[in-house]
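Hi there. Long-time user, first ticket. I'm pasting a complex I've been working with (about 575 residues overall). I'd like to know whether the download I got is complete or cut off, because the file seemed smaller than I expected. Thanks.
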Amino acid sequence: MSPEDTSIGRAVRFLSDRFPVDKLSFAALVGKKEVPVHKMSWAYYLGGLVLFFFGIQLTTGLLLLFYYQPSVSDAHASVDYLTHDVAGGALIRNLHAWSCSAMILTLLVHLLTTFAMKGFAKPREVTWLSGVALLIITFAFGFTGYLLPWHQIAVNATKIGLQSIEQVGQYLPGALATLPTRLREAIQGEPSVGQATLSRFFAIHVVVLPLFTMAVLGLHLLSVQIHGMSQGVDRPADKTERFFPFFVLKDLSLWGVVFFILATIALCVPFESFFSFPLFEPYDPLGSTPDGIKPEWYFYFVYYPLEMLPFWLVNLVMAGAVFVLAAAPRIFRGTGRQTLRTLAAGAAAYLIVMTLFGHRIYAMVKGGH
Amino acid sequence: MARHAPALLAASAVTALASSAGAYPQYQKWIQQNSGRTVSCAMCHENPDGPEGVKAGQLGSLDAEARKRLDRARNAFEPGARVDSPILNEFGDHIISTIGKKRFVALKEHPELLPPLLDGSDLDGDGISDGQELRDGTHPLDPQHGDPRRLLKVNLLRYRFHLGMLAAATILGLYGIRHLLHWFALQVRGALSAGDGRSSTSAKTS
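Hi, the file is complete. Here it is re-exported in full:
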């Protein structure tokens, strides 16, 4: 048995294939990189767009930190002060809220198009896996950030989310059954959602997750630059264009246009105007809970099925979906792009239907909220 | 007994007020039906749970001075009176001040007649009249809350200068990048024709 056939040898070969040292130069990573030009080329801009929205999240989030007070007594008042009394505060907050939604939407489209274009195939497994990790981190950003304003919908929706984690325990065997409860207690920090929960969510949202994001994003971008854009279509593209400066400058143009649209929306349409105002009253543990407590729209694809179908079934399907995403490079190794496109279209249809019409389907099934 | 008389009077007054405080659910019901939005007592009252109770802004929490203010507000039967009720917010005070308590009570059977009477004011200055905010079920004291389409229309007009400047900056940026791309393409084409030997088809694609 040669040293290369051992598991360590295979691991070394795997890593050297994914991170070839000879390609770790500026010339190889940027100067010589070519981007295929074909009918699906627009999808290559999606990753950069997600990065752009993340940059806006980071910048506006830092500005919000100047005023936000992470305590149950002051959180709502500080957000209220920031929104109504600080010059430009409402704009910054709306930019943060709108770019969060835009980032998640773009990220989902990026994931589906990359899947449809077989962008996960060898040697891009690390790119794909780090992308899936970034998707999960982004959802965690959304979940933890939702609680911070400490209003009715924030606290009540977080309570429901944390209860759902605990419920998973009843379907796990033996000692594993207590794991979700302990996880919930660790996140919650006290018997009910309170100051400890807010402190932990704040720390996770502004420190832990950004650090994770930086690390995983660094790996993702390095991997993208090393291996370049995937072929994307079955027949190799006749044309390519240089990544630098052509693709980068086009990317910048797109960012400029998108920023104009985003700023216009953030300036003219407050994000909270789509909801009933009682949802944004300060959370009162002794007061009544207003109607319409729901998670953010990007969780509807799991929220409405949870409301309509058995808990175990939805969790099983979602766990299966995460497993399929993580194992896609192996599962779909020999699958053609036509099949992948059909699967991606099916997933997109499900996400669109559940997000836009989930409440109507729920009303039909259960007879309304 | 005489020693306890003021306290008893106050208690009975609070009870009497409390029994009549929630006497106008017709407005809330109509707004919710008309707008499709959930509306709480916080639209007109200090406390989101309404005037009954002992929390801040509720009848049970009022001291003697606040009760006097409440009495004055409850006696503002005609329009034009200055209203400063301890259980109503600025919008609640504004309604009573604008149309008078008598008319407000009379309109409870026809809540749809209330918004037109408030179309002349815009307390939060968001560009949507208070009457329209009532119809839409949005908060009349929060400039960040209104019907999204109306806010878009109003704010596009309000921020036209800012948006114009932003559009100009974007167009200028795009113009600059386009010319930069053109310049780079020329450079690549020049290098190719000079026999640089590069295999890139950048010039072709640019």
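A couple of notes from our side: The longest helix of chain A spans residues 195-227. The two ends of chain A are 65 Å apart (CA to CA).
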